[in-house]
Amino acid sequence: MNMMKRILLMVVFALPLAACDTNDGGAEQLGEKIDNAADNTRDALDDAADEVSDSAEDACEDMTDENC
């Protein structure tokens, strides 16, 4: 009986994995494109903010001859 319980538990836990569909529909593909565009935009903004911060730090150091 113990072996039957184990097998039953394995089937119960494996069943949701077997039900997963790997075919992406149109809405899923559109959502992925939107996510990628948002990620690229965020990365570009982060890079621009880093450049502005570095430039401000460089300007501060040039004007005061100290580490800012």
Overview of the structural elements:
Helix content is 82%, strand content 0%. The N and C termini lie far apart (72 Å). It contains 2 helices and no strands. The longest helix is centred in the middle third of the chain and has 39 residues, at 26-64. It is mainly α.
Feature tags:
single chain, 68 residues, 0% strand
* Structural class label: mainly alpha
Please write the string of helix (H) and strand (E) elements. Answer: HH
Distance between the termini: 72 Å
Q: For the report, how would you describe the main beta sheet? A: none
What is Rg? 27 Å
Number of strands: 0
pLDDT < 50 stretches = none
Strand fraction = under 5%
Helix content: over 70%
Oligomer: single chain
Helical segment tally? Answer: 2
Taking all residues together, what is the mean pLDDT?
86
What gross morphology would you assign? elongated
Write the layout of secondary structure elements.
Blueprint: H1 2-18, H2 26-64
Short description:
With 68 residues, this protein is mainly alpha-helical.
